[in-house]
Amino acid sequence: MASKKDLKNRSREDYAYILEYRTRWSDNDMYDHMNNSIYNFLYDSVINDYLMKHCGLQPPTSPQYGMVVHSHNDYFASISFPACAELALRVNKIGNSSVTYEIALFEKGVEGVRSVGEFVQVFVDRETGRPNARGMNPLLREGLERILVKPPQSKI
To answer: Any idea which UniProt keywords this protein has (predicted)?
Structure first.
């Protein structure tokens, strides 16, 4: 896991997939910024957008689907309506049946990251609700590997 300082220094270039989201008046809370529950909604949305477009996921019928087993968020600056958000996605780790995503929220036209979150999903079989012993579907894995962050190569 990256340090809070590293997360605060994230830029759009650190992510392989970006989805734009136009904030809504109803996203704001009484403090005139986007409510914290909206961040989780948006993180879930960018993940599922990517899974559907690039990993073959069809939510009503796919034999496997992802269940969120862990999530958290670090907030660095607020965003509010009528700003346009840019949701940036990458994969930090892929296991046999699990994936760890990192999602950053940027405000369009503004440099600094507003928040960085993490979601961990376990892909389970629709029939049993349990992870498949053979792991996740190969098409799904292939799509996730496209946005997997590769560790830096050590210099010898």
So the answer is: Hydrolase
- The model's pLDDT over 92-116, given as tens digits with 9 standing for 90+, comes to 999 999 999 999 999 999 999 999 9
Could you read off the pLDDT of 26-56 as tens digits, one per residue? 988 888 888 888 999 999 999 999 999 999 9
Domains of the chain: 4-142 (3.10.129.10)
Could you please report the per-residue DSSP string of the chain?
Answer: ---HHHHHT--GGG-SEEEEEE--GGGB-TTSSB-HHHHHHHHHHHHHHHHHHHS---TTT-SEEEEEEEEEEEE-S---TT-EEEEEEEEEEE-SSEEEEEEEEEETT--SEEEEEEEEEEEEETTTSSB-TT-S-HHHHHHHHTTBPPPPPPP-
